[in-house]
Design goal:
- By secondary structure, the protein is mainly alpha-helical.
- The protein folds into 2 domains: about 70 residues; about 50 residues, no CATH class.
- The chain has 4 helices and no strands.
- The N and C termini lie far apart (about 120 Å).
Length: about 130
């Protein structure tokens, strides 16, 4: 038998030394178990916190993905169908090319200033009359 076995045989279980040793050991076990429970609780709390954060991030990803799809769809639609201003600008460029005009430009023509917006003829009316 080893030393610890011999030592245990000679220890009087009713002695003050034995009682002190057992108390210290019991206190250490309680402290160890308490720390273990605290660590386990901290891990569980952290898991819950990360799970909640992950759920929020997944919701945000879903929302941003939907927004991205909507914006891509809008952009794609814009590319397929130019806006009225794009169409108007293209038609105006075409009309201003003198070689494509049936009617020569008036020699007295003076471009309107920004202040004369009321005197600017309706573009749609002009283009309808030419066609």
């Amino acid at each position: 038998m080893g030393r610890s076995a011999e030592r245990q045989r000679h220890v009087d279980k009713h002695s003050d030394e034995y009682a002190s040793h057992r108390k210290k050991n019991n206190d250490a076990v309680q402290k160890s178990r308490k720390l273990s429970r605290q660590k386990s609780k901290a891990v569980v709390d952290r898991i819950k916190e990360l799970t909640d954060e992950n759920k929020c991030l997944e919701d945000k990803i879903k929302r941003l993905t939907e927004e991205l799809c909507a914006l891509q769809s809008m952009y794609s639609e814009k590319q397929r169908r130019p806006s009225l201003s794009d169409v108007a600008e293209a038609r105006l460029d075409q009309l201003l090319r003198t070689e494509h005009l049936d009617v020569p430009l008036d020699e007295d023509f003076v471009p309107c200033s920004d202040d004369d917006e009321d005197s600017v003829p309706d573009f749609e009316a002009i283009t309808k009359n030419r066609n």
